[in-house]
Amino acid sequence: YLDLARLYDALPAKAPERPAYETELEAVKGLTVPIVREDTSMEELENNPRVSREEMFKFIFEDLNTAETLLANYTPATKNLPSLAVIYGLKARAYLWLGGFTESYAEVPTGDAAYRLAAEYARKAIDASGCTIMTESQWLDPKTGFNTVNSSWMWAMIQTTDTVLNNLLSWSAHMATEAIWGYGYGAQPGISVFSYNRISSGDFRKKSFVGADRSFDAIAPYTTLTEEEFATIAPYASFKFHAANGEKRNYSTGNVTSIPMMRVEEMYLIEAEATAHYDAATGKSLLQSFMAKRDPAYTVPAANDLIDEIIFQKRIEFWGEGVIFYDLKRLNIGMHNGDTGTNAPPMAQLSTDGRAPWWNCVFPLNAVQQNKALSGKNNPNPTQTVKSVK
Fold first, then answer.
1. Distance CA 51, CA 5 (A)
2. Domains, the chain, with CATH or none
3. What are phi and psi of 258, to 5 degrees?
4. Among 42, 19, 2, which residue's Cα sits nearest to residue 330?
5. What pLDDT shows up at residue 163?
6. Count H helices, E strands: the chain?
């Protein structure tokens, strides 16, 4: 529900090619998704309206408070099960989202009050987890990097041979550039040239990406591809996620990986950003302390907006992990894939002034047909709202 609420929350977005979109958003302002409880009847499901942001987060915190009580003395045997630290982490994510709003609610906090709670619960998650920040060797290992649970992972999806259905229905097939059997090797998910160029040369995370010169020698220590196999790899392609044991051709073993769902590093960066909203000096100190683990020579740039700098470092830290989208939407940060010098593919060369209209997800037609309360209350169609530069 936390993810659904954030995905469907219809936040203001500029639509220069179809200004009517902005007006249409007003009809669903502040609405999230319908709530389905254990005892919701079929009749109720057929007329189940979207609930307000306040009601949704009241519901979410009720669940998390219950979980916090029930898991107080529980230690999971494996990281695919939630722990008390994970509950704290989910609360930190929820309060961080609410920090982005100025509306005053009776049931849940917003603004600085929410940001203070986000920082508080992020610190609780760090302390309760017992996790430590990933090292350079853990990050860059070509056989276990981002496919094996390690000391920084708080929560994970752990796959087994039983969950490997075929060569394509897997994380590795799409995200591991070494996965020659899947889409990863051909599609080569990569980083924006603008982000790549902004990463300091002393930051070891930069080594996860192919440089502009496509040097095989530079990337060779961090991949199991041969120089011949590397010949078709584009600049800025990612080698962050690896197939199991660096496997390249056997999907039945290469797809058996673990996927991070929550890492302790997220909690450090939530604490830094949330704090920075009401105490810039402490927020800056927290960022500096975290970044020392990524680049010993790093200093917070004086010329950069502090929140922007924290979010940038979070973008690099969690590239490809599905974390940063919610921050971009919350903070109204625009896309720059259509800017001069972009390396985005032609169909994706779009730039926006603030959050993109398509970040307000639209309910599928079949959901609207089966739930009459959604009729006239769907998020507006975001297509043709922003013009591609191509």
1. 9
2. 2-134+262-374 (1.25.40.390), 160-256 (no CATH)
3. -105, 150
4. 2
5. 86
6. 18, 2
Which band of pLDDT confidence, cut at 50, 70 and 90, is reported for residue 165? confident
State how far the Cα of 168 lies from the Cα of 248, in Å rounded to an integer: 13
- 290 sits in which H/E element: helix 280-291
Closest CA to 264 of 240, 242, 293: 293
The torsion angles phi and psi of 190, rounded to 5 degrees, stand at: -145, 180
Sequence letter at residue 384: Q
Instruction: Return the amino acid letter for 17.
Output: E
Are 187 and 177 in contact by the 8 Å Cβ rule? The answer is no
Place of tokens 């120089």: 227
pLDDT tens digit sequence for 125-135: 999 999 999 99
Rounded Cα–Cα distance for residues 157 and 148 (Å): 10
Instruction: Give me the phi and psi of 259, to 5 degrees please.
Output: -120, 125
Q: How does DSSP classify residue 72?
A: T
Distance (Å, whole) CA 138 – CA 144: 7
Rounded to an integer, what distance in angstroms lies between the CA atom of residue 330 and that of residue 357? Answer: 13
Structure tokens at 177: 């550039």
Tokens (6 digits) for 285:
């100190």
